[in-house]
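TASK: fixed-backbone design
INPUT:
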């Protein structure tokens, strides 16, 4: 017989669990401790299963019957009420988590931004911190505001192209290409982790304008270079900056590598400067595990450094800061001095001295390109595709640096 509210109220716990049937598999289970649970017993795929319909009296008889009827309707459609309940709980958990993430200012887990940050966290240890910061800054400024909140699987090529066109419109075409490459890396990570089936950035490269390659301005005319060298000799700024200007074209390193030089890196008696791998412009693995870069010093360079040692030898930095002797000089000091001497940014920069040497050593002095590239700390390859060791050609580079310093002295005259 179907249950009644009166029968349920009168039922008392016994020494064993009791089952008060209501029909069609529904019953009220009463435990010896007095707890009362509504259950529905059913069969699906040949297996007997049970689900809970709530507790009494919180869930009354009428409510329990409505839940049981809903479960039977699912069974009629071939659905398992227990599995549906699990799926509903999982969906609710996802919704709650999404709401909590949104309230905390975090992107949704299926969003492009979330996948991008996950990819970045996976790869960041491979990069130098400054390089990784540039990638994330590019995504945060140029990509996330437009598609960061979008589900990554919903982003199509035209939508991503519109983001890149927005970057292009600012005139920074190279930045647009770099953003495309970063987005493509994120989408490839999304494919690898099962978020998406294909990479929508794959075919967009040819849809962007080609970037105009702009090299660092450099002087390659001997007469004009001679004028610059004489201007350096007459520079009225600090002695530290003047010496840095004098040395920069004679060591062929980047301005940042020069200005951060420490006295501990030099052996002036052997005329050698050994730059630690971590201070060279390399990928992170090269910084961590690569060999140091050896710079043979011409006699003119050694003489200039010995003279400078009398002024800055008490500081760890060869080119110490003017106000703070425990720091290197400003990274803007070299270019500021060049402007003060009347040489514009369109004609020469501190970095451009490398291009000057690269061009004139080959064209004017006939030095082998492999030797020049080794001194510039470029990773060049031989005919078999093997990268030259950066410390090879040490004898040849020593001779080259001496010839180059003498050549510059001739131009100064």
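OUTPUT:
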């Amino acid at each position: 017989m179907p249950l009644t509210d009166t029968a349920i109220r009168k039922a008392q716990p016994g020494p064993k669990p009791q089952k008060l049937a209501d029909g069609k598999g529904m019953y009220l289970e009463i435990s010896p401790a007095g707890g009362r649970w509504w259950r529905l017993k059913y069969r699906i795929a040949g297996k007997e299963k049970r689900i809970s319909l709530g507790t009494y009296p919180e869930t009354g008889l009428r409510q329990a019957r409505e839940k049981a009827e809903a479960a039977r309707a699912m069974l009629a459609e071939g659905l398992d009420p227990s599995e549906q309940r699990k799926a509903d709980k999982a969906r609710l958990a996802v919704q709650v988590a999404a709401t909590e993430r949104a309230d905390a200012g975090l992107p949704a887990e299926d969003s492009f931004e979330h996948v991008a940050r996950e990819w970045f966290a996976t790869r960041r240890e491979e990069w130098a911190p400054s390089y990784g910061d540039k990638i994330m800054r590019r995504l945060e400024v140029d990509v996330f505001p437009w598609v960061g909140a979008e589900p990554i699987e919903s982003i199509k090529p035209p939508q991503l192209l519109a983001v890149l066109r927005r970057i292009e419109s600012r005139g920074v075409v190279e930045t647009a290409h770099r953003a495309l490459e970063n987005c493509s890396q994120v989408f490839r990570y999304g494919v690898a982790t099962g978020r998406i089936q294909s990479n929508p950035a794959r075919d967009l490269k040819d849809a962007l304008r080609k970037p105009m390659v702009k090299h660092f301005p450099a002087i390659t005319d001997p007469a004009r270079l001679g004028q610059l060298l004489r201007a350096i000799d007459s520079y009225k700024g600090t002695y530290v900056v003047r010496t840095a200007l004098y040395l920069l074209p004679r060591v062929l390193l980047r301005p940042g590598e020069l200005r951060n030089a420490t006295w501990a890196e030099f052996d002036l008696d052997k005329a050698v400067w050994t730059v630690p791998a971590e201070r060279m412009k390399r990928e992170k693995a090269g910084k961590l595990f690569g060999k140091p870069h050896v710079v043979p010093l011409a006699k003119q360079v050694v003489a200039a450094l010995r003279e400078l040692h009398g002024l800055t030898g008490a500081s760890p930095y060869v080119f110490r800061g003017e106000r703070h002797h425990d720091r290197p000089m400003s990274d803007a000091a070299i270019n500021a001095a060049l402007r003060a001497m009347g040489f514009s940014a369109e004609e020469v920069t501190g970095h451009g001295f490398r291009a000057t040497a690269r061009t004139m050593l080959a064209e004017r002095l006939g030095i082998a390109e492999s030797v020049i590239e080794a001194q510039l700390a470029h990773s060049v390859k031989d005919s078999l595709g093997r990268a030259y060791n950066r410390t090879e050609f040490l004898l040849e580079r020593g001779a080259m640096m001496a010839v180059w310093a003498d050549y510059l002295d001739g131009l100064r005259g």
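COMMENT: The domain at 112-207 is CATH 1.10.150.130 (DNA polymerase; domain 1).
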